[in-house]
Design goal:
Blueprint (H helix, E strand, L loop, with lengths): L1 H21 L5 H16 L8 H15 L4 H7 L5 H29 L1
Helix pairs in contact: 1-5, 2-5, 3-5
């Protein structure tokens, strides 16, 4: 049951962020260009952006999806072995979109 909620929450977050970008929010290119600035601002001592924990989770999810040892379950289980990767990839996409949107709002408040 917890796995279903996690998968549903990841897909809902991804859908909401894609809709927000489509309805006047920052586009995907703007969000991706903000990633290096977000990492740099999270690592600063002064005027720090508070997204370091979320960035750590995003990096861990990226490593999980890209880890070469993870290919073994897919060889034995076929498509069933891909479900965990799909869930993590959906969460990763939603988290990146959500966090970059939050960062861009934070950055805009600092400028104004």
């Amino acid at each position: 049951m917890g796995q279903t909620l996690g998968r549903t929450a990841a897909l809902v977050a991804l859908w909401r962020q894609l809709r927000a970008a489509h309805h006047g929010g920052p586009g995907l290119g703007t969000r991706l260009r903000a990633l290096p600035r977000m990492v740099a601002r999270s690592l600063r001592r002064q005027q720090r952006y508070d997204g370091l924990w979320r960035l750590t989770l995003i990096a861990a999810a990226l490593l999980y999806v890209a880890w070469p040892v993870e290919l073994i379950p897919e060889l034995f289980l076929g498509p069933v072995g891909l479900i965990d990767d799909a869930v993590v990839a959906a969460w990763l996409a939603g988290a990146v979109l959500s966090e970059t949107g939050r960062f861009l709002e934070w950055e805009q408040r600092r400028i104004s």
